[in-house]
Specification:
The complex is a heterodimer of chains A (268) and B (335).
Chain A (H helix, E strand, L loop, with lengths): L2 H27 L3 H6 L11 H8 L1 H34 L5 H10 L9 H11 L5 H25 L3 H10 L3 H12 L1 H17 L2 H5 L8 H10 L5 H31 L4
Helix pairs in contact in A: 1-13, 3-4, 3-13, 4-7, 4-10, 4-12, 7-10, 10-13, 12-13
Chain B lengths: L2 E7 L8 E5 L4 E5 L6 H9 L6 E6 L2 E2 L10 E4 L11 H20 L8 H17 L15 H14 L4 E5 L7 H18 L2 E6 L2 H7 L2 E6 L2 E6 L1 H6 L4 H6 L6 E4 L3 E5 L14 E12 L3 E8 L2 E8 L9 E6 L5 E4 L1
Parallel strand pairs in B: 3-8, 3-9, 6-7, 7-8
Antiparallel strand pairs in B: 1-2, 1-4, 4-5, 9-10, 11-12, 12-17, 13-14, 13-16, 14-15
Helix pairs in contact in B: 2-3, 2-4, 3-4
The chains are: A mainly alpha (268), B alpha+beta (335).
Amino acid sequence: MNTTMRARWYVYAYCLYLLVPLYWLVNMSLRTRGDITAGLEVVPLNPTLGNFAEIFTNPVWFTALGNSLSYVVINTIISILVAVPAAYVFSRYRFLGDRQLFFWLLTNRMAPPAVFLLPFFQLYSAIGLFDTPLAVALAHCLFTVPLAVWILEGFISNVPVEIDEMARIDGHSFVFFFFRLFLPMIRGGIGVTVFFCFMFSWVELLLARTLTGSAAKPIAVVMTRTISASGIDWGVLAAAGVLTVLPGLVVVWFVRRHLVKGFAMGRV
Amino acid sequence: MSLRLKQLKLRAGAPSGIDHEFADGELTVVLGRHHSGKSALCRLIAGLDAAPAGSLFIDGIDISGLNARLRPVAMVFQAFVNYPNWTVEQNLASPLRARHRRRGRDTAHHQGRGNGGDAQAVARRVRMVAESLQIDLLLDRYPHELSGGQQQRVAIGRALAQDAAVLVLDEPLVNLDYKLREELEGQLRTLTRQTRQTVIYTSSDPLAAFALGDRVLLLKAGEYVQSGRPVDVYSRPVSLVAADLMSDPGVNLLFGPDHWLAVRPEHLSFKPPSADATAFPATIVERETNGSETFVHCRCQDENWVVRSIGVTDAVAGAAATLYADPANVMRFER
């Protein structure tokens, strides 16, 4: 076996190792509560979809899934709408304090979310936003908008400024240029940005839990609360875990090619 | 249409502005070295930058404040700039469609005419331009599927399709290899003669001035140096800078107490051309030849000189030699 072959096997082995917990999660989600506690089964002997059925029929799980998706989608939309113009300006224009402002945006990412818990909680309670998907979405924007601006600025700076100038000389209006020429050019970057905003918002637990009560409870919170409430239903919990992983997988699938480019540019 | 520059400063803080007229239908080669303000001039004419001082007139109409979108100026950049997500056909039609959209907005409310006729006219014009640049078989391709030469043809085609009064070409062929450059240069000359546009073509190569230019305009450090027909500027440079810019390799220099003597490499020879030829004693340093001509590098009074001679010349490194030039070709410039 030559060196490249051996190196390849190491990589396969490592990937397999990484997949073990994920496999175990899927494994558990296909078994009943009794089965799981009974003993070790590498391959489920009596696979069942009952756990998934439980989630999709029980309104608690179902609405929680809906809540999570709604604030994540709202957050992603707001982040993209705000970050694309901001990143364009940071990339194309020089103005007083532009570098400082750009860096300041990034420093927002350096503070742990917990720092902002109290102000958000108090503010949202005061203005009646508490316990709505919009509350969580806006709170997450504090982190996803700087991230999105940072990533998009890299992609936009990769487009030669001569293209903007060419469009002006050709006589295109800025609106036409921006929406019909420019946005399609950076669609890969937008895809990558959507992915990162989506993932941040999807896995973030602390803000999501604190800023919601019963009405807008996200799925991750329901999962943790199940543990303490009616004993632990391992199978349903695992099924919920699987369902939590899926949206991320779907998004990754769509942006996988652009993701590599984003990594290569050092912005991701 | 003619383009006139009035007291136009290429950069803020320049001591004086440029007054110049680019005559209707002529091709002017703007010659200058790096950072001579060639690109700055192009961007000012196209309206991409605002002039620090001075104004521009097209046929007597002041366009200094006019947005780049509305200026009757087309431009080709040094880098191959095309819209990557549009096909060649869409790229070429881009300025035409932009114009139709603008007109459509202006006239839509009092004219219910469809633009089927417009679409046909655009298609015809695109086909014509593509054929003249030999890219008519590539219309369905995307820019990244083309070679560098083809990409620049598309960029030139888009500028030609615009059919603007003034066409600005900012060192369009620099990034191409030698053979392609010559070929495209020839095609550009034919095309611009046909369209009768006022063309501004920047370069750092005096050969381009002779090959393409009806006129030449010399720039140095953002300042006007000289302008005129290439042969006139070549034979009667107003200053050492002008003589040097129109010479490749640069002129050979001798420093006098209050003047410079300058001789072009092609005016030097190893045999006296006439009885009253001026002689310069020198030492040969090295020789490079490409068969058709030979460059002999010499030292003359502690200056590096180059002699350009036809064919292959024998020259031994380290040997002493006497260089001759016709006194009419020895240029004298006061300090």
